[in-house]
Amino acid sequence: MPWMWITVAGLAVITAIGAGVIVWTGWLQSRTLEKCVGLSVVLHMFLGVVATFVGGWMPASWGTLDEGRMTMVVVVADGADEEIITDPVDAPPQDDEISDTPALADGGPAPDMPPLLVPLTGSESPEPPANVVPLLEVAADEASEAAPRESGVTDETPLPSSSEPATVTMLPTVYADRVGARRTAAAMARGGSQQTEQAVQAALGWLARHQSSDGLWNAARHGAGTTGSTAGQHRPDVGGRSDHGVTGLALLAFLGAGNTHREGPHAAAVARGIVALTERQRSDGSLAGRAEFFAALYCHGMATIAVAECLAMSGDELLRPVLARAIQHTLAMQHPQTGGWRYASGDRGDTSQLGWQVMALYSARNAGIGGVEEAEARARGFLTSVSSGASGGLASYRPGERPSLAMTSEALFCRLLLGLPPDHPAAGEALGMLARTPPGSSTYDIYAWYYATLASFHAGGPQWDAWNTRLQATLLPLQHRSGGALDGSWDPDRTWGRHGGRVYATALSALTLEVYYRHMPLHGQPHRVAAAQEGPRFEPRARGR
Fold first, then answer.
1. Measured between alpha carbons, how far is 427 from 420 in angstroms, rounded to an integer?
2. DSSP helix/strand/coil, 387
């Protein structure tokens, strides 16, 4: 019946045109999940109608030409030791999203992985030094002491030392102030204090005590995913499965204070966390774990930064293929025209998501991963699209929206990472907004304060002293320091903290107070962009096992 096929073809054309209109107008950029569900329902109803008609025109004919008796042969596999599952309810759960194969089992990429990016070091497949203990060997040593390990158990034992002579690890200059006496000196010279250092150590202690036995930090166990709408964005129950994201933040807090999986008072916690993240890397490179749709790319970005910093600080080449695959995923998720990132590949982007992905690219550079220049150039373009103000220094969540403190701070920090001179008029305009909205106990928003502190510190100048004074006066008293289970932690704020929970709030607060030494100040590096394109700079660092 030709007219019926013509009808079906016409409906298909209408559907294609509708899909094109949806993409062109950006209709899915708001309330994406609800609209996708609605479109799915309509599409399945349409397919059901088509299948009904097609089935009527061409009914199934299986067996119609068979004559005589029909015999069914059932083949049973031989093997008495094999388990036979007869009821699907009894079948063990399958994990379709997370690979069970340890990502660090060897130094090469897993089968069917995208090719690795070109390392800035010029080595196509760098070999780990002979006197370096592989990551999984360190983790195995610690696991024998720690497993099973429940939340609330303290484990701050450093990795065992030996009589082997000290080796030299090339530490990127950008991280050099995290280590040893340099950390204390940098903190005192750049606005830190004994109180800020005590707060950081207390926070790391709380995080170490509440790491789960699988090496991750459990987001839901510590209050994540308890709200549906925040700052005008409808995000139902998002954050409860963001274990990889808060684990990335916790690891960054440890790394920021000089710990790696090989050394430092919290080396055991870092080793378990890094192994937990990398063993669960997906085949497409994502480190998001089981995070929900709205949280997945955030979690991937946070975890990727942690892996990158751990590789750069420790020199453990077994982490390089993991990082290369993770960066490939980051690049694949960027919009090719707008230069932004959001929730899914093809989304036009938002500033909040952009910050974590730009930081991932920057951290990958410091670890010796190349091939990210085009992505960084596109990111600059996205930042232009969300800019406003006389000098273009203010920034909004998405193009055309009102600028805010959090987005202006995040955009300024990204611009500084991407080469904006700290004395540029756009930087001055952004810092003016920070000066007008200093931290206060009634405006507790650790996400905004984290990025504002990074932007203020790396821009430098007299504005930093004013911001830093208000930050310490507000943030330090909010930390629990009276003993008990909460000692060293921060309560989640009412903005985004309820999505991330106590681990998120504590790790981000610790990172904020590590700003004095976590990275070399960008305002003191006038040639940092050219140097980054040539490759990371390294300083020798003595390290013994």
1. 8
2. strand
- pLDDT of residue 176 exceeding 70, the answer is yes
What is the chain's alpha carbon radius of gyration, rounded to the nearest angstrom? 26
CA dist 244 and 291 (Å) reads 8
What b/e readout covers 324-337, taking b as 16+ CB neighbours within 10 angstroms?
A: bbbbbbbbebbbee
**pLDDT tens-place string over residues 94-145:** 333 333 333 443 333 333 434 445 444 433 334 433 333 344 433 334 333 3
- H or E stretch at 540: strand 538-543
Q: What angle in degrees, to the nearest 10, is found between the helix axes of 462-475 and 497-513?
A: 120
- Tokens 């080396």, residue? 267
Q: Output the CA–CA distances (angstroms, integers) from residue 123 to 129, 317, 449, in the order listed.
A: 14, 11, 39
Q: Does the CA dihedral 515-516-520-524 come out positive or negative? A: positive
d(CA 161, CA 369): 31
**CA separation for the pair 427, 31 (Å, rounded):** 33
Distances (CA, A) of 508 to 200, 252, 425, 497: 11, 9, 29, 10
d(CA 455, CA 500): 22
The continuous run of DSSP H or E covering 361 comes out as: helix 351-366
Question: Residue 26, Cβ neighbours under 10 Å: how many?
Answer: 11
